[in-house]
Amino acid sequence: MTALTRRPTTISTVAAAAATIVALLTAVIGSIEGGVLAVFGASLIAVGLFRSTGRVVDIGAGSIFVAVVVAGVQGLSTELVVVGTIAAIVAWDLATNAIELGIQLGREAQTTRLESVHVIASVTVGVSAATVGYGAFVFGSEGQPVGAIVLLVLAVLFLLSGLRR
Amino acid sequence: MNLRWSILGLGLGAFGLAVVQLAGVLEITLDQALLTVVGGMLLLAAFNSFSRRQQERSVFETPDPEHRATVPVPGHSLRETVNQFRRERYDFTSGSQRIHEGLHGAAVAVLTRFEGLSNEQAVERIEAGTWTDDEYAAAYLSPTLEVEERPWQDRVAAFLDRETSFRQYVRRTTAAIATIGYGGLGDRRLPKEIPQYDPEEFENVRPRTTDLETEGVVERTDRQTGYWTGVGGLALVAIGLGVLSQTPGVVLAGVIGVGYAGFAHLSRPAVPEISLERTLSVTDPEPGDEVEVTVTITNESGSFLPDLRVVDGVPPGLAVVEGVARIGTSLRPEDAVSLTYTVTARRGTHDFDPALVLTRNLARSTERTFHVASDTTVVAKPTLRPLVTDVPLQAAAAGFAGQLTTAESGEGLQFHSVREYRRNDPLNRIDWNRHARSGELATLEFHEERAARVLILIDARKTAYLAPEPDAPHAVDRSVEAAGRIAASLLDAGDTVGLAALGPVERDSNHQLRLQDTCWLAPSSGPHHRMQLRSLLATHPQFSTEPPATDTQWRAQLRMIRRRLGSETQIVFLSPLCDGGAIRTVRRLTARGHALTVISPDTTAERTTSQQLARVGRRIRRFDLQRAGVPVIDWPADDTIDEGIARANAGGGR
C-alpha cells in the first residue's frame, strides 16, 4: 500500500522560496533593521513549510511584509518597495497553498496545472494592483502625490467595504 | 443599509476629489496635521481589524479512500482479552482487580494444559510462586510473596520510562504465562523481549469518501476558507505608516495589499458541471490481480474552472498499490484530465464510492465540496483451483465411491488383504500369480474408497474479522479463499461439498432475524453446483470483505444449520478461534455426532501485552479442541493454505 505523504507540494514550495528570497533581498538592501526582521521571517517560513504549519508561515510572511515597509520608511526606493511587497505576499500565498494542497492531495498527486494557475494568479493580482497604484503615483508626482494617493486609497477602501455583502 | 450607502458615498467622494486633484483643476493641499490624523485613523482601523475575532483559516481534511477498511488485531483491548480467562464476569470489581483475576485464570489454564498439573496443584504452585522464574510475575499472582526492593537504578529507569510498577507486573506476568502457553505445542518460538503494555496506535483511517447515497453531482458544503485573513489589516498598517512618514512607496505597498484583499472577494466558485468516467483494465479480475483504474474528468460547462481537487472514491475493500487516486487541476471549458492508479483486486464485490470534488474560486477564499457519483463495480470471484495436497478429512463417509479411503475391504485401488476364494468372486480379483505358483485360488481385497459428504462452514461473525495487522488480509478473507480451494479439491475427488456460514444477517421490520439470508448450499456435486459455489463465495453478503457494523446473532443460524445437516455429513470449520463462540459452535456440532475438522487461520500478534494474552487464549482453545478429539489445523498468517495443510498432513493430520 502506498501511503500518502501529506507534505507541501513541490512547485508552490519552490515558487514560495524564490519569492521569499526576492523579498528578503529588497529588505536587506533597504535597511539593517528591515534586513534582520526579514531574515527572521524567512526562517519562519522555512520552518512552517518543513513542519506543514500554516500559522508559522503567517507570522513569517507578516514579518517580511513589515520588514519591507520598515525599509520603505527608512528610504528604500519606491520601485523596490513595490517589488518587495509583491514578493512577500506571493511567498505567503504560495507557501500556504503548498501546505493546504499537501494536506488535501499529498505530494505525489499531479497538481502541476493547478499550482501553475495559482502562481500566475497570485503574481498577476500583485502586479496589476501595483500598476494602478504606481500609475497614480507617477501621474500625481508634480502636485501633492501623497495626498492624491491617500484619497485614492480611501476611495478604494470605502468602496470595497461598502460593496461587500 | 444607511451605513452602507454612506460608506459608498464617502468612497465616491474621495475618488472624485482624487481625480479632480490629479487633473490639476483644483489644488487641494492636505497639510501635515490632516495627514497625521488620517494616518492615525488608518493605524487604529488596522489595530481594530487585528483585534477583532477574525475568521480562522481552515483546511478541509480529505478522507483516505486509498486505504482498505481496517480490522482489529486480536487483543486490541486488554479488558476484553483478560475477561476470557475470568470465571465470573458480571461483578463490580475494579479494573486492576479484573486484570489480576484474568491473569490468575490464564496462569491456571496454561499450567493445567501444558504442564499436566491438576487444578489444585496449579493454584498451589501459583501461591508458592514456583511456577515461573520471573520474580515479578510470581509476586504479582501470589498473595504472600514480595519482590525485593528494586535497586535505585531500576527505579530511576522505570520513572523515566513513565512505567508504573503495576504495568511492569502485568507485562512480565503475561510474558511468563506466554512462555508456558507457547511451549505447550512446541512449534512456536518466544519473542525476544517482553512486548509493550500500551495498546498500539494506528492512524485514524477513513476508507470511504462518503456513506451517503449519491447520484450525479451533489453539493455537501459551501464555506469561506479564510485564506486571505489578515492581508487587509497589514495593508492598513502599511498605508497608515506611509501617510505618517509621507513615503509614497510604503503607501503603494498598502495599495497592493488592498488589491489582494479585493481579489479575495472577487468571485465565487461555480457548481462544477463535470462528468467523471472510470475505466478498468479488467472488469472481472481474479483475486490478487492488479487492476488499472483510469478516471477521466471532463468540464462540461462553458466556463473556466480555476481550482478543482478530486479524490477518487476507491472502494473500502480495495487498496491502491501504485499511483495516486487524487488530482489537483484547473479545467478550461470542454477540457478533460485523467488520472491512473492501480489497485489489487480482492475477493468480493466492490462498488466505487462517489469521488470527492473540492472546488475553489481563483483566490481560494471560498470552497465548495461535491460528491460526484459514477457507478463502477469490480467483482473478483475466487478461483476454484484444487489444493496441491489432500484435504485432511476424517474417516466418516457416505456410501458412494470417492476420495476417502476406508479401513474396510472391498472395491478400490489400494491393496488391503488376500482371502480365500469364494464362488462367484469376479475373475479380475483372483490372484493369478499365486494360482500359477501353487495352484490355489485366492482373491485380492482392496481398501474400499467412498465419497465423503462435506459441509464447509465459514466463521464470518464480526468477531472473526481479525488480522495480525489492521490492513492485512483478515481471517474471513483467508477463510473464504481457503473454502474455494478445499471445495475444488473435494469436488475433483468426487466428494459432495456444501457451503454454509455463520455471519451477519439483518433484521426485518419486526426485529426478526432474516435467517433465510444465511448462506446455505446443501452438499452436492456437478458443474452447476461448482458454479453456484463460486458465485456464493464471491458475492454472498455474509462473506463481505468489509467488517460488519454490529455484533452477529449467530446462535439461531447455527440451530438452522444443524437442523439441515444430514447425519453422516462431516464438517470443515474455518475459524480464527479467537472467541468462545467458535468453541461453542464446534461443541454443538460434534455433540450431534458430526465429524469435524477445524482449519484456523492464525490472526494473533504479539506486539503488545494484550495481544500476547490473546494469542495464549487461542492456543488454549486449540489445545482443548484437540484434547476433545477435534483435529485443528493451524494456518499461520504468512503461509498459503497449501503450506498450512501440507504441514498438518506431514504431522499425521488425518
Please tag this protein with its features.
heterodimer; A: 165 residues; mainly alpha; 0% strand; globular; B: 654 residues; alpha+beta; Immunoglobulin-like; Rossmann fold; 6-stranded mixed beta sheet; 5-stranded antiparallel beta sheet; 17 helices; 21% strand
Structure explained in plain terms:
The complex is a heterodimer of chains A (about 160) and B (about 650). By secondary structure, chain A is mostly helical. Chain A has one domain (about 10-130). Helix content of chain A is about 80%, strand content about 0%. Chain B has about 650 residues and is of the alpha+beta class. Among the domains of chain B are: about 270-380, Immunoglobulin-like, CATH 2.60.40.10; about 405-450, no CATH class; about 455-600 and about 635-650, Rossmann fold (3-Layer(aba) Sandwich), CATH 3.40.50. Helices cover about 35% and strands about 20% of the residues of chain B. Chain B contains 17 helices and 19 strands. In chain B, the strands form five sheets. In chain B, strands 16-15-14-17-18-19 form a six-stranded mixed β-sheet, sandwiched between helices. A five-stranded antiparallel β-sheet of chain B has the order 1-10-9-4-6, with no helix packed on it. In chain B, strands 2-3-7-5 form a four-stranded antiparallel β-sheet, with no helix packed on it. In chain B, helix 6 packs across helix 8 (about 165-185). The termini of chain B are far apart. The model of chain B is unreliable at about 185-190 (pLDDT under 50). The interface between A and B is large, with 78 and 82 residues.
